[in-house]
Amino acid sequence: MSTAAKLFCNFDFTVGAVAGQPNRYVERVAGSIPARTSCDPQIVVSGLGVIFHDSKEEYQSVADYYAGKSLLVTGATGFLGKVYIEKLLHSCKKIDKIYLLVREKKKVDINKRIEHMLDNPFFTRLKRTDPECFKKLVPISGDIRLPKLGLKPEDEQTLVDNVSVVYHGAATVKFDEPLSVAMNINFEGTKKLLELSQRIKNIEMFVYISTAFTHTHKKVLVETIYPPPAKVEDVYKFIEEYGDDELATLKFMNGQPNTYTFTKALSEAYLSKHHGNLPAVIIRPSIVCATSKEPLRGWLENWYGGTPFIMNVSKGWLRIARGDYKNGLDLVPVDYTTNLSIIAAAKAKRTKDVQVFNSTTTADNPLSWSDIKNNFSEEIVRHGKNDLPYPDVLFVQSRTALVIATFFMQTIPAHILDLWLKMSGKDPKYVKILHQVIQLRDAYDYFTINSWVMRSDRTRELHSSLSAEDREEFQCDPTQINWSEYLKDYSRGVLKYLKPRAM
């Protein structure tokens, strides 16, 4: 510990005391103190600020906060939902119940859906260490698309009487979802869940999972609520007049890249304006990818996020795209996002305003395309899983250059290879795959041609305020990610857990 840090830790800090009582928290910038200097269990010094806990107040661990509490979770069977539930059961063992809002699907009842979910190898750790914990999972039949969430009166009353924390992760994440559908699921679903939460007797926190791409017209994105991209009444007037016309929708969204980010931005603004006295936080993850460490390295279960784009580059199918090598991608491990969601409910200050926490990496631990090539792609090649030799991507700026380069570097070779297959008595496939890859590339075009700096100051400060044990248990500080190690685990996870596909 530096001399400045020692003097600082020994200093009897009393500024701001009122009537002889010390402040609960006093924050100040500590420029001369090294990041992460730890003075004692009650004082944590970070490069972002210094948080002093009242010495008379005993630190409450994250696990202790959740002890005896019950939660309501939407989106439980999704990627983020599974990781969130597994971590809660593993690290917060005294949690009472986790109510899971689950809709019946293809005539499969909700209990069968949860049983099927728990068959996933992702839950192996819990089955080995604490198999009884699954009794804490209570499926509740419901659907955020339906009036009153499709809840039975008795189930609704159970939630009103027993829940302390609401975690809202259910959403449609399809970029090309019709606007009317995205509004019904992402906006109206959030609105209905907020209305229910405001009637819960002992509610302590509403956690809303959004996206870091809600306001991409700004090049530097900070942890604050931005104005909505449109008025809700104008959105419904547009839908009534134009329906789900794609070109009209794109023009109406005024710079928003797709209906997913558009409806998430509307939902954030609605939550900020209408949450009332209900404490609420918004978690904004960037491109959510495979787990970093827990409970399995490199685990993932779908081809969403950045995985299809990165994998097609690594396999050699995608060789030209619009963008810049300097841009990189803002990826975040899924367990970092779920850990942040858990600690935000437990430790975020209860204020009158909705607090935003970015689960992002570009500002504090940027990832370059060179990192992806030298680690993810090289690992795919090392395992012999690249379909075409020397996988790499050429970035160009203009659409004209993209079309010309694609024609010479991909279209002509694809037709030649298909001709060779036909002459060999085999079915052609390369032109078909190329068409699929081009569709994929076009869907990601907005995100590869643009770049953003997504700040996570509040997230890092929240994480730094935890005890040493909780900081280790609930890692969410982006500076802790070792990209070389993570990308290799990520690539191995794709090969191990996902079924092969061209897109």
TrEMBL record:
Its EC number is 1.2.1.84. It is found in: Membrane. It is a multi-pass membrane protein. One of its GO terms (cellular component) is peroxisome. The keyword Ubl conjugation does not apply. It catalyses: a long-chain fatty acyl-CoA + 2 NADPH + 2 H(+) = a long-chain primary fatty alcohol + 2 NADP(+) + CoA. The keyword Transmembrane helix applies. GO terms for biological process: long-chain fatty-acyl-CoA metabolic process. Keywords: Lipid biosynthesis, Lipid metabolism, Membrane, NADP, Oxidoreductase, Transmembrane, Transmembrane helix. This is Fatty acyl-CoA reductase. It comes from Spodoptera frugiperda (Fall armyworm).
